[in-house]
Design a protein that fits this description.
It is a single chain. The chain is an alpha+beta fold. Among the domains are: 7-95 and 315-368, no CATH class; 197-280, N-terminal domain of TfIIb (Single Sheet). It has 14 helices and nine strands. The chain has helices at residues 7-12, 17-26, 38-51, 56-65, 67-70, 81-90, 94-110, 200-208, 248-253, 283-292, 294-306, 317-341, 347-356, 364-373; strands at residues 124-134, 149-158, 163-171, 190-193, 212-216, 223-228, 237-245, 258-264, 271-276. The protein has a nine-stranded mixed sheet, with helices on both faces. Helix 6 packs across helix 12 (317-341). The radius of gyration is 24 Å and the shape is globular. Mean pLDDT is 91; it is low at 376-387.
């Protein structure tokens, strides 16, 4: 009989429990609570993420069906909808946000040797947001449109390993460009973003901090050419120029020269125009950097397809933010597990294996090995012939 830890318990072992208890004290998360602790709530929300539960009733029913197994990881006694709903409404979501920040630090340490293959010395980040639609009658605080509610997740993604190093959750009405005011990027880093973040005053602040950026321009961005750069042996590059902004307000916001690169994608024949403050990189590298920005779109798609971030277990701001931060924690725990155990699978495959074997007492590396070794075509010649 296998007396080892269940798959769920092995994943929870990647969470620094002592630091979690420290955060519980900092945010007084267990103050006045007798039975349903912060750790119990975290267990429930992590279970919901790893098994993709679609609602509070569904989550509670599945938890209580596995009561004997949950006992061994610290969840003792039945879970009621009212108890879990109250915890989601009242317990400060910043507890899970702070835990997420600790897990982000752990992931960055584990993936510090990852490389984009572009010969860049500093980290490269992509900035974007994704909108999660909500029902206006149930989430009236989530301002978006006259007949629609939504919440936005603004994410800064480290492109070396798709690590969300910064996450800000706002109502859907908050404009993307305002998030630039909240960013503190390390000197020598590089930011890649779409046209929504083209604000020259904010970009000049990044430039003054020795932070590079690569952005697509808008159609109405006026510039004056003040120099040309050679474009020989750079496939797809149409022009590489030094420019100054023309519009008075833009020029006041960004008084220094910029670099304007025009690139035609050989696959789609689409013309892309970039503005950057990095004059030391090849024009093709600028284009490749922007192509890597697509990783953040894939990250948003992965999050929505593989974790519980579309159906919420509470209607308050606190409940929604708690659930989204626990989804991010689940993603980070999967990344940590893959790196520490050297598992030869993608995060999506590992998450699916966890979902279907969450209470099996089998080591994670053996679970992955069984899944990989079973991926073969049978030899038809060795099959019995049935008459």
């Amino acid at each position: 009989m296998n007396r080892g830890k269940a798959v769920f318990a092995q994943l929870l072992g990647q969470v620094p429990f002592s630091h979690f208890e420290h955060l519980v004290d900092v945010y007084q998360a267990n103050k006045g609570i007798r039975h349903f602790s912060a750790w119990n709530q975290f267990l429930c929300l992590m279970y919901a993420q790893l098994t993709r539960r679609s609602g509070l009733r569904d989550l509670v029913a599945c938890l209580n069906a596995q009561r004997s197994r949950l006992y061994h990881i610290g969840l003792r006694g039945p879970v009621t909808r009212s108890t879990l709903a109250d915890a989601n409404e009242r317990r400060d979501y910043r507890l899970f946000e702070a835990l997420g920040q600790r897990l982000i630090a752990s992931v960055l340490t584990l993936y510090e040797d990852a490389d984009l293959g572009l010969g860049l010395s500093g980290p490269v980040y992509a900035l974007d947001s994704t909108t999660i639609d909500l029902c206006l009658s149930l989430f009236p605080w989530a301002d978006f449109r006259q007949t629609k509610a939504a919440i936005k997740a603004h994410v800064l993604l480290d492109l070396r390993a798709a690590i969300p190093v910064f996450v800000s959750l706002t109502s859907g009405k908050v404009h993307d460009v305002k998030i630039l005011d909240q960013l503190t990027l390390p000197t020598g880093s590089l930011l890649v973003a779409d046209r929504a973040y083209l604000d020259f005053k904010r970009l000049y602040r990044l430039n003054s901090l020795s932070v590079g950026f690569v952005l697509r321009t808008k159609a109405n961005t006026l510039t004056q050419v003040c120099g040309h750069r050679p474009i020989l042996d750079q496939p797809g590059v149409v022009s590489d120029q030094m420019v100054m902004l023309v519009t008075p307000l833009s020029l006041v916001g960004y008084p220094d020269p910029l670099r304007r690169v025009v690139f035609v994608d050989p696959e789609s024949a689409k013309e892309l125009v970039f503005l950057t403050n990095r004059f030391d990189l090849a024009a093709t590298t600028i284009a490749r950097l922007y192509k890597h920005r697509w990783q953040i779109e894939l990250f948003f798609k992965w999050l929505k397809q593989n974790l519980a971030v579309k159906h919420f277990f509470g209607n308050s701001v606190n409940a929604v933010k708690s659930q989204i931060w626990c989804a991010i924690c689940a993603y980070l725990v999967v990344l940590i597990t893959i790196r520490r155990l050297h598992l030869p699978v993608s995060p999506q495959i590992l998450l699916h294996l966890i979902e279907t074997n969450i209470f099996e007492k089998i080591s994670l590396d053996q679970l992955v090995n069984n899944a990989i070794s079973g991926d073969y075509e049978p030899d038809v010649a060795n099959q019995l012939i049935l008459l």
